[in-house]
Amino acid sequence: MGLALLCAHAAQAGTTFDTVKKRGFVQCGVTTDLPGFAYTDSKGVWQGIDVSTCRAIAATMFGDATKAKIVPLTTQARFTALQSGEVDVLTRNTTQTMTRDTTLGLIGTGVNYYDSQGLMVHTALGVKSAKELGGATVCVLPGTTTELNLADWFRGNGLEFKPVVLERFDEILRSFAAGRCDAITADKSMLAATRRNLGEADLVILPEPLSKEPLGPMVRQGDEQWFNTVRWTLNALLEAEEYGITQDNVDAQLKSGNPNIQRILGVTPGLGKNLGVDDRWAYNIVKQLGNYGEIYERTLGMQSALKLERGMNALYTHGGLMYGWPIR
């Protein structure tokens, strides 16, 4: 059955772009509920940076960011859903790793959020460093890079620990509250969202990063046109921010004499054709959604409930890791 499934993947892999175009909307797999990344607001509308990434792809393909179907997926179901064609792209908070690029028939297209894994404890535990957690019990989700990173970090630091493996994050939180585990582990952005929801005064995220977590979209291997569509959508968001193209000024920027801005916004023709989309593809993204920085601020940053600093997710010109590839 596994071999047959892989053959089916190979058969359909190269047709994703045409399939999405014919269908008239893009199907994106996101997490089931994670503030800042993918969640439903009080009106039942999906919000978050991963949701905005999906809508940006729709804007590239159709000139309309609303032509996106959001499909919530659990950690266990996410890769199977992409492999089987249930979704066209994972814009879910998924770590890009060598194993995932080389064994699943999938491939990462770039990074929309740099994160690291951390540990969170109750202040009553009285620890200020993860290195004080020798012998501690730690609640963790199964089948994730999180579980592997946790074991690697403790082993690398010569410390023993007792994992408590639970299938759902809400189970982890209940166990943590009940004292079944001394600490919980997840990406630090997820821990920050959890701390906010549970009340910050009683909880502390320990300073040590347990891992590197470059999060970003994944697609099926073997479809370079679709891969390029997703990859260059991410780059357009970053390039727009670097060149000061915003949702408010994008129309005025059409008159810019800067050749880089002219290429990004399609004033200089031809680059859209290379992707198989309209030359105004990046203009459509920024006009409807804003640039990367604008999306970050309203989903994760100072305009959001989480109020996370840009940190590693600032542009490289501001000390971060975000570096848009040239649209030329």
UniProtKB/TrEMBL annotation:
Keyword check for Signal: yes
An example Gene Ontology biological process: amino acid transport
Keywords, ordered alphabetically: Signal, Transport
Cited SUPFAM superfamilies: Periplasmic binding protein-like II (SSF53850)
Ranges for domain Solute-binding protein family 3/N-terminal: 25-253
Record-linked Pfam families: SBP_bac_3 (PF00497)
Assigned protein family: Belongs to the bacterial solute-binding protein 3 family.
Protein name stated in the entry: Amino-acid ABC transporter-binding protein YhdW
UniProt organism field: Achromobacter deleyi
Gene name linked to the record: yhdW_4
